[in-house]
């Protein structure tokens, strides 16, 4: 898997929340908190921010005293821009002794004040959302090894968390498995990967191919999904990832509360069944043996009893294992069993 070499982020991290008031726009910060907690010393936010990670609130200088080496912009806003209001706080971090790590589309070095300050102080500006050079055109040819891809009925509803949970569960069973990151937060967690939404469209399927190369027959690559194949704006990256990763198994991620497509409220969220049918139809182009291993539901808003009941009823309705990967338990064990079937 492509690694972040040379200019790799150095932890521990101070997580920057900017002026975020919507939890969903802080998914990078939450992802690092949940999956790399040992690397997170605290959070830093502007006065207008209402989102919190429930980590210690620290200034950059205080974070340095606690061992932080980098500030990570934990925001993933629409368009991936770095707000003007953030610049003084980012300069403060540089002056305190921190590098700055960003997964935004906007590049840190293109912001004059940040570039000059970093050069003057010898700090690094690290843009994670930078694909490798010389990505080949996809071949569509089948590769050795096993692959699992998480797909979604919409954006931002748990594909990364599901892939991480599945990879962890496989490893716990003694299965040789790797999580393959395709977005900025996953790359920060895993230490490598390819930011699929930053790859030129003609090369996106090729990027997915090199992300999960030939492997031993019993090795599993668990690939983080992106977007949704029926999202009016973001389906392109989803289809490229599907064709290039050639999954043997896919898991559909869904949030029952979501009725309208995120970022495009004119469209209804498709059904789980629609996504299964379409993923098989399109995915079979590069892997005729593709199959659905089950469904991952976000049940964070329910009690344990309610979550179990929902997963059980959906499993009966769909005739597939249905579980919340974060809750784990017997339902999740059954989903893993199904994914591993020959």
TrEMBL record:
Gene3D superfamilies, per the entry: NAD(P)-binding Rossmann-like Domain, P-loop containing nucleotide triphosphate hydrolases
Domain D-glutamate N-acetyltransferase-like C-terminal: 137-330
Domain D-glutamate N-acetyltransferase-like N-terminal, chain residue ranges per copy: 53-131
A Pfam family hit: DUF1611
InterPro entries, per the entry: DgcN-like, DgcN-like_C, DgcN-like_N, P-loop_NTPase
Protein name in the entry: DUF1611 domain-containing protein
């Amino acid at each position: 898997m492509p690694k972040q070499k040379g200019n790799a982020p150095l932890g521990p991290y101070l997580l920057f929340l900017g002026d975020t008031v919507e939890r969903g726009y802080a998914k990078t910060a939450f992802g690092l908190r949940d999956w790399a907690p040992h690397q997170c010393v605290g959070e830093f936010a502007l006065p207008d921010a209402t989102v919190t990670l429930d980590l210690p609130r620290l200034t950059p200088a205080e974070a340095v005293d606690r061992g932080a080496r980098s500030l990570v912009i934990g925001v993933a806003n629409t368009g991936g821009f770095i707000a003007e209001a953030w610049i003084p706080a980012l300069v403060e971090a540089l002056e305190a002794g921190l590098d700055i790590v960003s997964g935004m589309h906007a590049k840190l070095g293109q912001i004059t004040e940040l570039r000059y300050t970093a050069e003057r102080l010898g700090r690094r500006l690290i843009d994670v959302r930078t694909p490798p050079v010389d990505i080949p055109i996809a071949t569509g040819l089948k590769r050795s090894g096993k692959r699992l891809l998480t797909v979604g009925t919409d954006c931002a509803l748990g594909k990364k968390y599901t892939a991480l949970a599945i990879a962890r569960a496989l490893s716990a069973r003694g299965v040789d498995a790797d999580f393959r990151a395709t977005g900025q937060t996953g790359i920060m967690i895993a230490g490598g990967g390819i930011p699929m939404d930053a790859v030129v469209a003609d090369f996106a399927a090729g990027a997915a191919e090199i992300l999960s190369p030939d492997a031993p027959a019993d090795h599993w690559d668990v690939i983080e999904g992106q977007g949704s194949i029926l999202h009016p704006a973001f389906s392109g990256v989803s289809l490229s990832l599907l064709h290039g990763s050639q999954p043997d198994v896919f898991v559909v991620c869904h949030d029952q509360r979501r009725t309208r497509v995120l970022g495009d409220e004119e469209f209804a969220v498709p059904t789980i069944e629609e996504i299964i049918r379409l993923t098989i139809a399109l995915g079979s182009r590069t892997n005729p043996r593709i199959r659905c291993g089950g469904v991952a539901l976000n049940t964070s808003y329910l009690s344990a009893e309610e979550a179990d009941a929902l997963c059980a009823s959906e499993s009966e309705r769909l005739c597939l294992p249905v579980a919340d990967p974060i809750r784990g338990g017997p339902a999740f064990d059954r989903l893993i069993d199904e994914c591993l079937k020959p």
